Amino acid sequence: MSGIRWDAKYATWDNFTGKPVDGYLVNRVVGTRAFCAALEKARDKAESLGFGILLWDVYRPQRAVDRFMRWAEEPEDGRKKARHYPNIDRPQMFEQGYVATKSGHSRGSTVDLTLYHLDTGELADMGGDHDVMDVVSHHGAAGITKEQEKNREHLCSVMEDSGFSSYECEWWHYTLKNEPYPDTYFDFPIA
User: For site (Transition state stabilizer), what residue positions does UniProt give (predicted)?
Assistant: First the structure.
């Protein structure tokens, strides 16, 4: 689909656990049909603003969530702390709402994403990377530039106008309002 790229972070070593996560066997994203239809609308809206969409995560197997919970109990090794959770400890990711024990991602209609400039392919500056579990990632965060704030507003308007709702703690996280499986947490691997 033109105007949409992906980099499934949990299938790679570039995520807060520091290695590929259970259930992500390939670097691919999966979503419900309803999600994909809404994403096409979002892609068109983003394109009208000069942006494309980069997906980091959509469907997340429950086994990946279970792995996150086990990882949070492991001793801190410091490899990813400065980048992903600089001001909290691993268990606080759950307590503060950055990671859920039952993730909306496992229902297949939640997405972590950002925008990129169609003319250059460069990511839009959002004032923080994916999965930075800190107040700087919240909508309306203090300390980001006007450009970063505007880029976050562009992403929010694109997604909300396409039928998604935002999550106040993470500028990159959106859920389809009328998701088809609101009470189902799938666990099939992405292969």
Answer: 60
Q: Is 154 annotated as ligand-binding?
A: no
- Catalytic-role residue among 74, 95, 153, 170: 170
170 assigned to active site:
yes
Give the per-residue SS3 of 23-56.
CECCCCCCCCHHHHHHHHHHHHHHHHCCEEEEEE
Rounded CA-CA distance 28/24 in Å is 8
Q: Which residues pair with 143 in a beta bridge?
A: none
Specify the pTM.
0.96
Q: Rounded to the nearest 5°, which phi and psi values hold at 146?
A: -60, -40
**Residue 105 known to bind ligand:** yes
Partner residues linked to 115 by β-bridges: 53
Neighbours of 149 (CB within 10 A): 16
Beta-ladder partners of 176: 164
Q: Provide the percentage of residues in the chain whose pLDDT is more than 90.
A: 99
**CA proximity to 65, closest of 170, 179, 186:** 186
